[in-house]
Amino acid sequence: MTPVIQAKNTDKRKRYSQAIAFTIFKLMSYSVVAILFIILGFIVIRGIGVISWDFLSKAPEEGMTKGGILPAIVGTLCLVVGSSIFSFPIGIMSGIYMNEYATGSKVATFIRIMTNNLSGVPSVVFGLFGMSLFVNTLKFGDSILAGSLTLGLLSLPLVIRTTEESLKAIDNSYREGSLALGATKLQTIRKVIMPMAMPNVITGLILSIGRVSGETAPILFTVAAYFLPKLPTSIFDQVMALPYHLYVISTSGTDIVASRGVAYGTALVLIVIVLFVNLLANILRTYFSKKVKTN
Amino acid sequence: MLTIEAKNVDFYYGEYHALKNINLEVQKNDVVALIGPSGCGKSTFLRLLNRMNDLIDGTRMTGSILVEGKDIYAPNIHVDELRKEIGMVFQKPNPFPKSIFENVAYGLRVNGIKDKTFIEERVIESIKSAALWDEVKDKLNKSAFALSGGQQQRLCIARALAISPKVVLMDEPASALDPISTSKIEELIYELKKDYTIIIVTHNMQQASRVSDKTAYFYLGEMIEFDQTTKIFTNPEKISTQNYITGRFG
User: Fold this and answer.
1) Which of A177, A211, A251, B190 matches a 20 to 30 Å C-alpha distance to A63?
2) Among partner residues B55, B99, B160, which is closest to A295 by beta-carbon distance?
3) Quick one: pLDDT at residue A6?
């Protein structure tokens, strides 16, 4: 064979394009981080001055230009918990069914297509649907129940999807190993597969919480109150919610300019809640993956 | 005494005819090696013996397989009960993400055994039979993932033994292991044959000749020859068997 000798220039060119490509990739990924920090910094700088114990523990005052946002914080927490109670069990069980029982079947494919479609539906449509079904037809009224169910529907595809993906990621050899010992399918899922999938499933659940706590449109017609200083006492009460409160005081409050401070404060609280939830997700995930390895 | 009896077994993956008219009889406490080139159907046949192929969609079997005279494909057979009697060790060690102790106890627990002292005794006994005891006795509560590949495979063998199966199926149990671990597994098989009937799929000809009493040679879905291992390796009847064991192909 003749040696490849004319390669000198090509080699140089290859190295240059390699260097340029990686520089561009690096810049792009850094800029994503930069954008995130700019947004966070902006909100923190504008909002931090507003945050005080009173802001977190009092109801809005003086046409929502002063006072606190406690009812909105409580309302958002109620909706997160309420929607989770609804979407987690249904979503996880559907995910298990699709991946472990109906593997590759037409039913599973159909459910998958349907959930994908469901996740593509704009959230305002969920709001409209929730209003017509839960608020009017089932007569729940504007209530935590109606809002939670609507938000639950919205987060269902995400829960199903992440459960299914986490289960799919588990090597079949573990299933076979368990079944070969005389375990039933259910025992295999409960004792081997689910514990292994748990870290990823939890990540999905937490992501869905993050999504739910930030949604405005689905709660608009189903639960959110414009101004309601009283805290809820039952699941049939209306509540304020952080994202809607932010929307209200930024666009249609009594005095938009005067409530700017409250708006940034609210945004900061919302972001901190979401960040806290993500942090919790990471802690739980590490805890569970450790437990899975050592137990 | 006959432990396994396969009669006119044909097996299909969809349209693909993977096993053609297999007839094979295995005596109690024999070690039978299944050899043959990749894709010849030896693993497929092994997985028919504990109905592992049931898990694959679109497969179909005709003929019958009897274990101690019982048709394991009869409609009144519960697959999980069958698998309790026919243990399996896989190609890649697949311990569960649990402690060493819990891995071996798993089979007992899923079969409804709750008696703690019994479980403990049986776990220790099984780990000893799998020649793993000296290496793990001080760390039974440590994760099974912390063990080496060879140790993990012996743990998987212990796990299979814990539910006292009649037959142990091994699907290339040493192919992912280093030579030292491999020889440990082979010694172990030699020990285990006193108490168990063992069927082992292997690509390693020396391994087959070292550990087995009888050898079946599979080629393109057919069982070409089945005889005493010494006969297969010294004086096979069929030219195809001879070509394979002398390394002319495969």
Assistant:
1) A211
2) B99
3) 61
How distant, in Å, are the alpha carbons of A19, A22, A40, A41 from that of A28? 14, 10, 19, 20
pLDDT band at residue A4, thresholds of 50, 70 and 90?
low
Mean pLDDT of the B161-187 span: 90
Place of tokens 């896989």: B90
CA distance A272 to chain B (A): 35
pLDDT, one tens digit per residue, over B110-143 is 999 999 999 999 999 999 988 899 999 999 999 9
CB-based contact B143 A196, cutoff 8 Å: no
Chain B residues whose C-beta is within 8 A of a chain A C-beta are 50, 52, 55, 57, 80-81, 83-84, 87-88, 90, 92, 94-99, 102, 106-107, 109-111, 142-143, 145, 156, 159-160, 163
Cα atoms in the 13 Å half-sphere on the side-chain side of A281: 17
Rounded to the nearest angstrom, the gap between the alpha carbon of residue A199 and the centroid of all alpha carbons in its chain is 16
Size of interface A-B (CB pairs under 8 A): 78
Find the chain A residues whose C-beta atoms sit closer than 8 A to any C-beta of B. 103-104, 171, 173-184, 187, 191-192, 195-196, 292-295
Kind plus residue range of the DSSP H or E element containing B14: none
Tokens of A291: 């437990």
Q: Which residues of A touch B126 (CB under 8 A)?
A: none
Work out whether the CA dihedral B207, B213, B217, B221 comes out positive or negative.
Answer: negative
Please indicate whether, in this complex, the C-beta atoms of B90 and A187 are within 8 angstroms of each other: no
What are the CA-CA distances from residue B58 to residues A55, A127, B11, B42 (Å)?
A: 63, 43, 11, 19
Domain-located, residue A233 = yes
CATH number at residue A158: 1.10.3720.10
DSSP characters for A194-246? HHHHHHHHHHHHHHHHHHHHH--HHHHTTTB-SS--SPP-STTS-B--HHHHH
**The CATH number fitting domain B2-95+165-245, selected from 3.90.1150.10, 3.90.79.10, 3.30.465.10, 3.40.50.300:** 3.40.50.300
Q: Which residues share a beta bridge with A162?
A: none
Q: Give A295's pLDDT tier (boundaries 50, 70, 90).
A: very low
Give the residue extent of every domain in chain B. 2-95+165-245
Sorted by sequence, the CB contacts under 8 Å of residue A95 that are 6+ apart come out as A159, A160, A161, A162, A163, A164, A166, A167, A201
Angstrom distance (rounded) from CA A180 to CA B90: 10
Number of domains in chain A: 1
- What rounded mean pLDDT belongs to chain B? 91
ipTM metric: 0.91
Mutant choice from A109, A175, A179, A181 vs B, greatest count of B C-beta within 10 A: A181
Task: Quote the pLDDT of residue A231.
Answer: 86
A122 lies in some domain: yes
Kindly list the residues from chain A whose CB atom is less than 8 angstroms away from the CB atom of residue B145. 293
CA distance B156 to B127: 10
pTM above 0.95, yes or no: no
